[in-house]
């Protein structure tokens, strides 16, 4: 019996001295399970994408994925070098961009679409679109590259959205910065009666920048008074009076003030509540997103091509969407829906009368 007990004790000691399966031998290094999991291609790719969107450079990636002590050794081929991180970011951002630009839009109840240009480089402009649904939630829709905001680029972006399920027969409010090419493309795709609102902030800025400083305060005050009026006819009269007052001192500015006057007062003509009108009279939604794009892209020192700009901008737009809040006046969106339906019905009746008038 004593010999049997001795053998049992010896076997237990030998069992404790053996390294468990999947661990290091005695005297070696114990591999960290979390690090082994991080070496996985998909996880490291997501890690690289997230850190680069947080402005961590590829040179600092190896230190960013380690513990605060920074003493976890990365073996050769572990995938934390500058070039490996860059390759992962390129591959994952391209895959994300492709899936995003092909996502179905038919299930979204979109009431508002804002479109604006983003200047990436001297000869490269990206056209981006953001929407607001019936609940006030915001959605980035897409981005398209071009040398300028010309009609071809605008049409390509709109065609992409229509091809993904955006019904052109549904009346929506479009908010733009004032590009004529964009207005033309919208009316080609969504009908001549599509309501388009030009950004009032852009308009006021463009006007005051061309005036002497002595006129800035009075012109801003007059424009603000016109924007706040509930009656579109009175607002238009006020703007025309301002244009006549500027004819002597700045005739070119006077003509610019009247250009696109109908589109400047679209939200007023729709008779929207004041708070909702203020939210939809400018492109602030997309301007805020542009701030995120500039922050994400500030580490890029040289844009190699349009594909690179699209990948970075698309990733930044998706990142910005994580911080989107509901529209401030989302409780008043039912009034916008009713106004759009009434506008569509009125335009349909007017279109039906035109052939009768022509025949007469």
From TrEMBL:
Residues 1-27 are annotated as: Disordered. InterPro entries: Transposase_mutator (IPR001207). Residues 1-11 have a biased composition (Basic and acidic residues). The keyword DNA-binding applies. Keywords: DNA recombination, DNA-binding, Transposable element, Transposition. Pfam families: Transposase_mut. Required for the transposition of the insertion element. Belongs to the transposase mutator family. PANTHER family: TRANSPOSASE FOR INSERTION SEQUENCE ELEMENT IS1081 (PTHR33217:SF7). This is Mutator family transposase.
